[in-house]
Amino acid sequence: MFLCDKAFEVQSRGIMEPLGVKVRVIQAGKFRRYAHLTFWQHFTVPKVVTSNFLDIFKVGRGFFQSVSIIWRFKPDVVFTKGGFVCLPVGLAAHILRIPLVIHDSDTRPGLTNRFLAKWADAIATGSPLENYRYASDRATYVGVPIADTFRPKSDAQQASYKQKLGFDPSRLLVVAVGGGLGARSINLAMSRAGQALLDADLSVYLVAGKGGYDAALSEAPEDERFKITPFVYENMDELLGAADIVVSRGSATFLQELAGLKKAVIVVPAHQLGDQIKNATVFAAAHAAVVVENLGIEDDSRLSDAIISLARDDLRRHELAEALHSFAKPDAAKDLAQILVTAAKR
Q1: I need a surface site. Which of 34, 61, 238, 315 has the fewest CB within 10 A?
Q2: What does the angle CA 149 – CA 155 – CA 161 come to, to the nearest 5 degrees?
Q3: What H or E segment, with its residue span, contains residue 182?
Q4: Residue 148, domain member (yes or no)
Q5: Residue at 150 is within a domain
Q6: What is the pTM (predicted TM-score) of this model?
Q7: Distance of alpha carbon 145 from its chain centroid, rounded?
């Protein structure tokens, strides 16, 4: 059984129900914390204070819903991924004495997992254990489960993917992705620097997100070497496999996919999301990614300068890709499944 909140019901049913997994919706609330606000500002911004107060009651309702569902379903183990919807579910598992396994994709443990860790039978992490403060006897570095298709591509495969997208395979290709909803700052920075990137003999493919497509298109150069799409529904491994340089947000799962593909990456973490900032910091410290600060990139040339500099340095691209690939964990799904089976048997 898969539990989610109302916001992700449609996506969850679309993924899980064809696999025969039942989906149940529970009430969920979260404690809003923003990296661009100070500690005290979280208690002075009316919208933040009001939302956090009301969500306390949502967590309570979600807890009783979770207890009822788990009591009736009687699972052998409960697995949570750290989102705010996991708090009432994890609490219910603890109260009902059901083995609990938690997993952190990000290098910055979420508040939910930090709270549930004291009761978890096992803890799996997406990054090396030195990035966490979990008990070493229960924590295991497994990485982030990703599809088997996110593996290094041969030169021939990369060339064929470029041709499939309509690009000259002899030119370096930059693929920019700001997440499923897009990222306004990345979209505008890429579009406004489009001509400079083309003049540097680069091809560009920008995944702008459904909401950002029109604005990005209006700013971009009209050139077949600069392509924009609102969303990619399939074969994401081929799109990223075609890239010589990838510009992305700091999502842990997406970075793990890029690690699997062995790509040179420029990370632009969302300034309000502490988990993305921490992910970017860890990879930058390992010389596995170039990091460009998000604020103001649409109004200056920092992002395009970083792209052009990397495009002109074959050795650095290779070194970045190799360093990022060292974080790849191709057996993450299998290792995580083994942890769940072991916990269920206790």
Answers
A1: 315
A2: 60
A3: none
A4: no
A5: no
A6: 0.84
A7: 12
